[in-house]
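INFO  loader      accepted 1 record
INFO  loader      residues=172
INFO  predictor   begin
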Amino acid sequence: MVSEGGNFCEKSKRNFGKIPPRPSVEVVWTWLADVPDPEIPVVSVVDMGIVRAVDWDDDTLKVTVTPTYSGCPATSVIAMDIETALRDRGIANVALKTQIAPPWTTDWLSDAAHDKLRAYGIAPPSPAGGPTACPHCGSANVSRVSQFGSTPCKAQWRCESCLEPFDFFKCI
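INFO  predictor   done
INFO  writer      dumping tokens
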């Protein structure tokens, strides 16, 4: 069995001449959990719910991803980062599939993503249509500055208590 942290090809050199065991899907998920979102590097592509499926098809690892929206400029970077992370772990055959249906939704964000966004200074999505509290001081006294933030999926808000600006991750 392959340990979670290492390159499985390196570990298999002890068995020269034998086909190295392929890592389990569970191990691959842990590797992908280390791939940061290029626009919000504090969360991973797994935290974001962008990685939808991981499966083996013979000797090819298939990874299905759903972009946060069809025009997301980070889609190609995410694909390249996923492929690089897997190849760096010794996976020779990687097939990435982009799936746009069903469309990505903020409901796919993990609980860890909500916590990491808040700690990073971004208010996580809220069904109320705006942030429930300032991610810096926790005050509910916030106001929208602009419907458009640093990326299309965020809006710019300001806390009226601590006066700090912050991004709000829009519900999609």
